[in-house]
Design a protein that fits this description.
17 helices; mainly alpha
Length: 386
């Protein structure tokens, strides 16, 4: 039993370290740009970042969630199904290449496409990394590719403009994607391979789930960016990245054991849920203290105490309803999750816009998102009890 517990703790630690590394590099990137250039430049970059994140939600088509559940139920068909879905989603890249060329400066669209291709490769292997617990390999890839970014950044830092930043970041992402491709290339299976384009229909609910989950967490950033205040956009986007990282901690813990959660009975899952909530009550305040220190030391932001109180109530619901979402998955009730997330997206966007229109301040955006998160918790709790 001790060995079993030790193994589980090790897997949780490795996955948390992996996800933490990815999130940390994203935060460090923004801090470096702000400190060596300006908040205005990062605010300009966020415009492209938000577009790429949107495009990736479409290109991914919920494949990670679908594959993890499929692998859990059909462990002998991993390579065949992974290969099929990889190539079935590939045409979506070229769809967005057309959008890149049509709506962006010709000098920039090639770098946007490289960025999208790199993320396509990286995200394609996410299900493999999680299911096969290849967390250490993933950490090495993330570190190596980020070192490449840092070296490239400081070579260009004296003449940094939006084009140079896009070039550096797109090359970083394609290098990262190619490293994942080279490391996990043996997961392809080409013998008698059939492309299952029915995947788009079969996985439509996981796609909606993934897209709406992303939209709920990022719609406030999109709305702030639409007001064309680059400094506020920078401050909020960076803080949002911190918050999303903390909110993702339950998933870092779940991910190594999702296949077990699908197979365990309700009493075991409820016990797991109570432990996650307890962890949240302890770890959220500690994380927010760290966020406060980072904001003061590296970004020269002195947010009011009430901002961090709002942040606590914005984050804690995700520690509670995360397991309830997995239970609904387990019962193949993805449609109910999608409906609730759709309501959450509407609430977040409406409240954020109304509060910001009244007064364009950081706390007003956060207040709208916090109210929406609390209402999401209520909706998931009521649904799960039915």
């Amino acid at each position: 039993m001790n060995l079993k517990i030790s193994f589980r703790l090790k897997q949780i630690s490795f996955n948390t370290l992996r996800q933490g590394t990815i999130s940390l590099f994203g935060i460090v990137t923004s801090i470096i740009v702000v400190n060596f250039s300006s908040k205005a430049l990062w605010g300009e970059f966020v415009y492209f970042l938000l577009y790429i994140l949107f495009s990736q939600q479409i290109i991914n088509w919920g494949n990670r969630e679908y594959l993890i559940r499929f692998f859990s139920e059909n462990p002998y068909k991993i390579k065949e199904v992974f290969t099929s879905i990889f190539f079935v989603r590939f045409p979506l890249l070229f769809f967005f290449l057309i959008i890149d060329v049509s709506f962006f400066n010709t000098n920039l669209c090639i770098y946007l496409f490289l960025w999208q291709l790199g993320l396509f490769l990286t995200n394609s292997y996410e299900a493999i990394v999680i299911y096969e617990k290849k967390f250490i390999r993933s950490i090495y890839i993330e570190i190596l590719s980020f070192i490449f970014f840092i070296i490239s950044f400081f070579i260009w830092s004296k003449h940094l403009r939006i084009k140079q930043l896009l070039i550096i970041y797109s090359l970083y992402q394609i290098a990262r994607g190619l490293l994942y491709f080279a490391t996990f290339r043996n997961n392809f299976h080409f013998k008698k391979q059939q492309l299952d384009f029915y995947f788009y229909k079969k996985n439509i609910w996981f796609f909606f789930l993934s897209f709406l989950g992303f939209f709920v967490s990022k719609v406030d950033v999109y709305i702030i960016e639409s007001f064309n205040n680059r400094v506020l956009t920078t401050d909020y986007q960076i803080m949002n990245t911190f918050f999303i990282f903390i909110m993702s901690i339950p998933m870092y813990i779940f991910n190594p054991f999702i296949k077990n959660i699908y197979r365990n009975n309700t009493s075991v899952i409820l016990k797991f849920k109570k432990n996650i909530i307890l962890i949240g009550l302890i770890i959220i305040p500690l994380c927010l203290i760290c966020v406060c220190l980072l904001q003061v030391l590296f970004l020269q932001n002195n947010f009011h105490f009430k901002t961090y109180i709002l942040a606590f109530f914005y984050i804690i619901p995700s520690f509670i309803y995360g397991i309830e979402i997995l239970q609904l998955f387990r019962q193949h009730k993805e449609k109910k999750v999608v409906i609730i997330l759709f309501i959450g997206a509407l609430l977040t966007s409406t409240l954020t816009f109304l509060f910001l229109k009244n007064n364009l301040e950081f706390d007003n955006a956060l207040l709208g998102s916090t109210i929406a998160q609390i209402l999401l918790l209520f909706l998931f709790s009521v649904t799960q009890k039915k």
